[in-house]
């Protein structure tokens, strides 16, 4: 783990960051995501899992826009562990909190970057007997390093290939609470 950051350093990161998507743009994207998900899943009584930690804010703001019966759960899988680049292995810190055998499952996460996290989570859901597994992310990062063949079913916004934070995404553990999507200066 790298050294901890001071409050001043963290405020400087925020002050110097580039705003890529405003709060209003994110909220409009969540409205569209919710409409697309509703059209596909309204009659399925799905289980909707957020992937902790990043999926927490997105799922929180998405779920109240879904006006059909669903169950909600969480799971915690991480590749980055507070760093700004991925570790080789995915670490499971909490398994799925609600049984999914025979169910339609929707996985909600903040970002589709290389896609190895979502790929492993989808495989885990299938192994646990889910009938159908769909994925939704707020942000799709644009680059050519995606896990081969990995696709996401519902995407809110596209962002450039930089390290981003806000709306659930962290900068070294902080600023998940930022009300927009920001790119760290120099990253
Ligand atoms: O597409 P990938 O390259 O696999 O990266 C995307 C994943 O990275 C982040 O999780 P992270 O491991 O940082 O954990 P966190 O949710 O606790 O921030 C994010 O929340 C996604 O789950
Ligand atoms: N916070 C954050 N987490 C990520 N996980 C994968 N890519 C990113 C990113 O750009 N920002």
TrEMBL record:
Residues 20-170 form the Phosphoribosyltransferase domain. GO terms for biological process: GMP salvage; guanine salvage; hypoxanthine metabolic process; IMP salvage. Gene3D superfamilies: 3.40.50.2020. Coiled coil: none annotated. The keyword Glycosyltransferase applies. GO terms for cellular component: cytosol. Keywords: Glycosyltransferase, Transferase. It comes from the Bacteria. One of its GO terms (molecular function) is magnesium ion binding. It catalyses: IMP + diphosphate = hypoxanthine + 5-phospho-alpha-D-ribose 1-diphosphate; GMP + diphosphate = guanine + 5-phospho-alpha-D-ribose 1-diphosphate. PANTHER family: HYPOXANTHINE PHOSPHORIBOSYLTRANSFERASE, HYPOXANTHINE-GUANINE PHOSPHORIBOSYLTRANSFERASE. This is Hypoxanthine phosphoribosyltransferase.
């Amino acid at each position: 783990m790298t050294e901890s950051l001071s409050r001043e350093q963290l405020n400087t990161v925020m002050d110097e960051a580039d705003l890529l998507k405003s709060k209003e743009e994110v909220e409009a994207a969540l409205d569209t995501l919710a409409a697309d998900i509703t059209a596909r899943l309204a009659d399925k009584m799905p289980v909707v899992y957020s992937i902790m930690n990043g999926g927490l804010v997105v799922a929180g703001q998405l779920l109240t826009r879904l006006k059909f019966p669903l169950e909600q759960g969480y799971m915690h899988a991480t590749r980055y562990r507070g760093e700004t680049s991925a570790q080789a292995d995915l670490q499971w810190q909490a398994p799925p909190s609600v049984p999914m055998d025979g169910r339609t499952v929707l996985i909600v996460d903040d970002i589709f970057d290389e896609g190895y996290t979502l790929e492993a989570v989808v495989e885990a859901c299938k192994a646990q007997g889910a009938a159908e597994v769909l994925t939704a992310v707020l942000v799709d990062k644009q680059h050519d390093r995606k896990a081969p063949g990995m696709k996401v079913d519902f995407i809110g916004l596209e962002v450039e290939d930089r390290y981003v934070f806000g709306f659930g995404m962290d900068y070294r553990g902080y600023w998940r609470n930022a009300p927009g999507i920001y790119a760290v200066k120099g990253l």
